[in-house]
Structure formats: C-alpha cells, structure tokens
Amino acid sequence: MRAFFHTLYGKISSVFVLLLVLLSVVQIAISVESSLNFVCETDQTINRYLAKNLAKKFKPHLKDSIDYVAIESIIADLMELNPRVEIYLLDKDGTLRTHFSNPDKIKLHKISTVPIEAFLSKTREVPLPIMGDDPKTPDKKKVFSVTPINLGQNHPGYLYIILGSELYDNAMSGVGGSYILSTTAIIFAVTLLFAGVLGSILFFNLTKRLRKMTETVKEFEQGDYKKRIVVHTDDEVGQLTSAFNHMAETIETNMKDLKKNDQLRRELIANVSHDLRSPLTSIQGYIETILMRRDKIDREQRTTFLEIVLRNVKNLNLLVTELFELSKLDTKQSHPVTEPFSIAELVQDIVLKFQPLAEKKSISLLTKIPKDLPFVVGDIGMIDRVISNLIDNAIRYIKPKGKVTLLLKMTNDSVDVMIEDNGDGIPEKDVPHIFDRFYRVEKSRSKNSGGSGLGLAIVKKIIEAHGSKIYVSSDASHGTRFSFKLKKYKTALISA
Ligand code: ADP
User: Which of 40, 90, 172, 468 could form a disulfide with 129 if both were Cys (CB 3.0 to 4.6 A apart)?
Assistant: First the structure.
C-alpha cells in the first residue's frame, strides 16, 4: 500500500479523491445552507403580513392595558393552526414586554430593532429573508414577521412573531434538515463515486504512458540504444516522448561516432607504428652495415647506403610533419586565417615550382586560367598546400609523357579550382576511401614514391575548414580530376 502512494499514479489519484471529497463537503454545506435559506425566504414571504393581521385581532385587548387572558386565547387558537410561530410584544426600542411561553426559556430580553426597521421600511426594498433575534436562542437568527402596535395608553411597540419556532426547529433538524442533507449527500456520493472511478481510469491511462516511457528509458540506460518510444499524441507527454526519441537518436549517433573514432585511433596507431618502423629499421640496418664493414665497403657503396638512409629520414620527417599538421587541423588548433588573394597568381607560382619535377618525368604541366578572375577569400598558405599536394600526386601517379592540367573557372559566387591528369585513374572501389588517413591504393608503390597516405586527408580537412567540399572523379580512360570551390571576395564579404 505504501508503495502505491509512492507512485505518481498513487499520488495523483489520492490527491484527486481528497479534492473530490473536500469539494463535495463544501458543496453539501452550500446546498444545505441555500436550501434552508430558500425555506426561510419562502416562509417569510408567505407570512409577511401575519403580524399585521394578528395585530387587528389583538387591538381590542390592548386598549388601556394588555389583556393577557384574551390574547393568550387568541394565540392558543393560532398555535393550534400554526405551531411554528412564537409571539412577542416589544417596546419601541426592542425591549421584550410580553411573551407567551415558558419564562425559563427566554434568554434574550432586548431584541435588535435594525432587522425590524429593515422589514418595515417602505423606502428601501430589503431582499428577504431578513433574519432577526430569537429571544429563546440568542445565538441563532430567525425569520420573523413584525408590525407596529399600540400597547395601551399610547405606548407604541411591536408585535414580533418568530416564524421558525423552537418546535419548528426541532422538526426541521429532525425531518426536513435530514431530508435535504440525505438527498444532497446521496447525489454527491454518486457523483463522487462516478468522478472517482472516471478520474482513476484517466490517471491510470496517463501514467501508463509514463510507465512505458520509464521502462524504455531503463532499457536504453542498460545499453539498448535502439530503443525508442512510439509517439501517439502531440500533448505534453507526447512532446516529452519525442524529445526523448531525439535525445536517444543523438546519443546513438554519438556512440557510433565514439566507436568509429576509437576504431580510427587504433588504426592510426597501428599505421603510424608500421610506417615509422619500416624506415627506422632500414636506417638502422644501413648504419649498422656501414659501421660493421667500415673498411670493407668502398666509397661509392657508402654513398649509396647513406643516400638510402637520407631518403628514409626524409620520409620519416614528412610523415611526422604531416601527422602533426593533421592533428592540429583535427583539434582546430590550426584554422584558416583568411584574406582576399589572386588565385590566378597563386596557381602560376605553384606551376612554376613544379615545372622542374614535371620536366624530369616528361610530364606537361598546363594551366587554363580565364582573364579577369576575381580575388578569392581563403588562407593562402593552406590553399597553396592543397593545390601543391594535388599536383604532386598527379605528377607522381601518372606515367611519363602524361599531362596535368590546372583549370580555374568563374561561377556565380565562387571560383572553381580543378586539377586534372590523364593517368590510369583510381580504381572505383578505392575512390570513396582515398581521403581516409593512411589509405593507399597500392601500398608499395606509394611508399616507394614517398607518399605517407596522409596527403589527401590533409587536403580534405583544409577545404572543409574553408566551408567548402572537395570532389574527385576518376576512371581509367580519362584519368583523375579533383575539384573544389573558393568563395569570390565580394560574395564572401556580403555573406560574412
Ligand atoms: P600518398 O601520400 O600515398 O600520395 P594521398 O593521401 O595523397 O597519399 O593519396 C592517397 C592515395 O590516392 C594514393 O596512395 C594514390 O593511390 C591515390 N591517388 C591520389 N591522387 C591520385 C592521382 N592523381 N591519380 C591516381 N591515384 C591517386
């Protein structure tokens, strides 16, 4: 039972039932009060002129003094017909002059004249019932009928009739009161029961959805990240459910990313250690040979060995530099410092830089640059790195006598940069991976040609840091094309 009151359903339904009971008690009290008020009003309206009519009968017996015998006989007749009334003769100031009942029962000897004046007032309409003092029950106000009367020898006073007499009171509380009370109580008991049952069903249904949510959240917490709650409605609970589903979606994606990153980290460590070990082993081997066979190897051989060592050291240097560069881009330590610059001039400079290498491999390095190209916005050093890397790759991966072309094209709000070659292309299955770290189509070839497998990963990072994207298309018959966009200076300013 205690557990029930600890649940939300238990709490809501017990508060609801408590409120219902409270409301019913208040409602019953109001109903009884207003019913009695209605009875009083009706009583006073019907008997409004009772005192006036009775006064006519009293008049002959109040000439010089009060003829008690005659009056008591009139009252006895009246009481027989109407047992609810109590009759009093009052002085003008409300002092009780005469009463016709047991003197021990009279507790109040002066009646307030304010309600009497209100009752008799002709100038202002006071709504009935008007409650006045009852000499027998000073703590209770009663409805009455009153009329001015002469109490003998020009002594003005009032004939004051209490309409709900003691006798009537007893009868009311015994019969009428209990009838009103019991009827009202029955109606409210039925309403209460009905509302209670209906409320309980409603709350049960409402909390059922919350219970379902709790179950799902628990399962989710225990690692079932696929768990979702079916949303049926658009109300607050429905909105909470949708919010949970969105949150679950985000957590699931983040968990996947975390797993992927972890996997990538492991691969990276494996690749780095492998790529470091090979040149280091080679360097160690050659240096040991030179040292061991110090006197036996001739000068020419030593030079060859040292050249191999130097090449390996260069490879190591390149690998470490690129790793460092990539990690800076990853952690956003290195971000583009943009400025407007002439992309046409930059491309010309890069081509000049690569010309000797291209000539050495008998590769023609061409440019197609339209006139009046606008300035673009970017980090000039980073863009230089990107284009150089792509040209370097093209020269390295195509056969001698091949062709590498650098094209610039103006579009609405940007300049397209394209690096094309007519090599053998990248196999279709490898294309989606070439921007991955350490990905090489042909490992041995790349290693021999000095590639670390990080070049394109760096290129992609830099272009993305500029808010752009890099695309590649490649096939064996046409070769490979890398392209990306750089924002035109003016457009970039407006959108900034
Ligand atoms: P690497 O240091 O090996 O050149 P990259 O990240 O620069 O590493 O390139 C990844 C792989 O993509 C290369 O190993 C190469 O196989 C392939 N690749 C890149 N550019 C070209 C190209 N122009 N033609 C053919 N293959 C290319």
Answer: 40
pLDDT above 60 (res 320): yes
Selection from 375, 393, 390, 385 nearest residue 329 by Cα: 385
Each residue of 84-98: pLDDT tens digit? 788 898 999 999 888
User: 386 CA distance to ligand 1 centroid (A)?
Assistant: 13
pLDDT of residue 381: 94
> Looking at the domain assignment, is residue 175 inside a domain?
no
45 is written with which tokens?
């309206």
E strand or H helix at 378? strand 376-378
- The reply to whether 269 and 357 lie within a common domain is no
**Residue where one domain finishes, among candidates 162, 177, 200:** 162
Instruction: Report the nearest-CA residue for atom 2 of ligand 1.
Output: 451
Residues 295 and 344 in one domain: no
Q: Which residues line ligand 1 (CB under 6 A)?
A: 393-394, 397, 421, 423, 426, 434, 439-442, 446, 451-457, 480
Give pLDDT, residue 304: 93
Give the model confidence (pLDDT) of 396-445 as tens digits: 999 999 999 999 999 989 999 999 999 999 999 999 999 998 888 876 54
Last residue of a domain, one of 284, 310, 328: 328
Please tell me the residue having the least CA distance from ligand 1 atom 12. Answer: 434
For residue 34, the model assigns a pLDDT of 82
- Give the atom of ligand 1 at the shortest distance from the alpha carbon of 435: 6
Same structural domain, 261 and 283: yes
257 and 283 both lie in a single domain:
yes
Ligand 1 site-directed mutation target among 397, 473, 483, most atoms within 8 Å of CB = 397
Atom of ligand 1 nearest to the CA of 398: 24
pLDDT at 455: 92
- Is 228 inside any structural domain? no
Rounded Cα distance between 404 and 223, Å, is: 53
Same structural domain, 370 and 446? yes
Domain count, the chain: 3
Name the residue type at position 99. Answer: H
Show the 3-state SS of 219-240: HHHCCCCCCCCCCCCCCHHHHH
Q: Does residue 193 lie in a domain region?
A: no
Whole-model pTM?
0.56
CA of 350 to the centre of ligand 1 (A): 19
Q: Quick one: tokens of 439?
A: 């990905």
Mutate to test the pocket of ligand 1, among 317, 393, 430 (most ligand atoms within 8 A of CB): 393
Q: Which atom of ligand 1 is nearest to the CA of 482?
A: 23
User: How far is it, in rounded angstroms, from Cα 403 to Cα 363?
Assistant: 6
CA distances from 284 to 258, 279, 302 (A): 38, 8, 14
